[in-house]
Amino acid sequence: MLNIRNLNKKFNNIDVLKHINLTLKEGEILSILGESGCGKSTLLRIIAGLETKDSGDIELKKDCGVAMMFQNYALFPHLNVNKNIEFALSKMPKNERDIEIESLLEKFKIKELKNKMCDQISGGQAQRVAFARAVANKEKLLLLDEPFANLDHNLRHTLRSELKQMIKQNGLSAIMVTHDKEDAFMLSDRIALIKNGIILDIGTPKELYFNPSSFEVAKFLGEMNSVAGYNIEVLPDEFKQWLKNKRYMFRPEQIISGNKFEANVLSYRFLGAFYELELEFMNVKFKSIINSNIEISDKFGFDLN
User: Fold this and answer.
1) CB-based contact 292:270 (threshold 8 Å)
2) CA dist 77 to 72, 112, 120, 294, Å?
């Protein structure tokens, strides 16, 4: 669907994007994940044709149109929902346009909103309208700029699944930029982690989470134990080999309840469904996440997952 090779961009002699290489398969959802100012939105705008690249190549599949959903949805507040969608179909003959609008209103469950002004509808409803307008011309590549940034936590959770389902059911491919790892984990087939204009790692959510390329990548995606600075030679051979296979870093949830080893419990925190334990085993300290229905004492029997 899309192939980006050695893409570079500067603003005022400052490197914003450096040697970006990315591919997107048909039907795939790719997230560009990174903190504010890392270059992810600039990359999206270059793909959309709203910014020019300094160098590099972007190859888009022949006859593949591009649609973009902006962070604030970019709906016209002085127009109703029907007119906002109609705006995207202005080149279509009137009779065909009316049929297509009715179809989109039905598909995205916003038919009852058709005569409402866009400043009178909720954030979730606005997202559906923006999505309907974005796909109205049946473009096959959808670009999403922080699509959940303006929604509260509960609505975000609901609409993530809904948006992913709409993308897949409509046979689209999508690139989403986000600073929120939960957005990326829940929607993406693959994630590209970007920092200071450089892609640090790319893979499926599970690959990046459990097999990150570096400790920097690992920490960005969640709590990670590292045994750097500890004398691991004192540990049992099985534990040492496990650490070697994990490249000496591992997630707290990879220390599970069991009877193979026993650690001292230094402290613990109740996190609702889970406890976070701080453990010490043969002078090596690390954290574990366990189910909160397990009774906590000053000793914790554990195994390696």
Assistant:
1) yes
2) 12, 17, 9, 53
First-residue to last-residue Cα distance in the chain: 37
**Residue 38, helix vs strand vs coil:** coil
**Cα–Cα distance list, 287 to 127, 145, 248, 276, 302 (Å):** 39, 35, 14, 7, 12
User: pLDDT (tens digit, 0 to 9) for every residue of the chain, 305 residues total?
Assistant: 999 999 999 999 999 999 999 999 999 999 999 998 899 999 999 999 999 999 999 999 988 889 888 877 788 888 999 999 998 898 888 888 999 999 889 888 899 999 999 888 888 888 888 888 888 888 899 999 988 876 777 777 777 887 888 888 888 999 999 999 999 999 999 999 999 999 999 999 999 999 899 999 999 999 999 999 999 999 999 999 999 999 999 999 999 999 999 999 999 999 999 999 999 999 999 999 999 998 899 999 999 99
CA 7 to chain CA centroid, Å, is 21
DSSP one-letter code for 117:
B
Of 27, 25, 32, the closest CA to residue 1 belongs to 25
Tokens 């007119």 belong to which residue?
83
Alpha carbon distance 76, 196 (integer Å): 34
Give the separation between CA 164 and CA 62, rounded to whole angstroms: 25
Burial of 88 (0-12, 13-18, 19+ CB in 10 A): buried
Q: What are the structure tokens assigned to 153, written together?
A: 């936590």
Residue type, 281: F
- How far is residue 199 CA from its own chain's centroid? 14
State pTM to two decimals. 0.84
Place of tokens 């195994």: 303
Gap between the Cα atoms of 142 and 131, Å rounded: 9
Token readout for 14 is: 């400052």
In order of start, what are the domains of the chain with their CATH numbers? 2-219 (3.40.50.300), 225-304 (2.40.50.140)
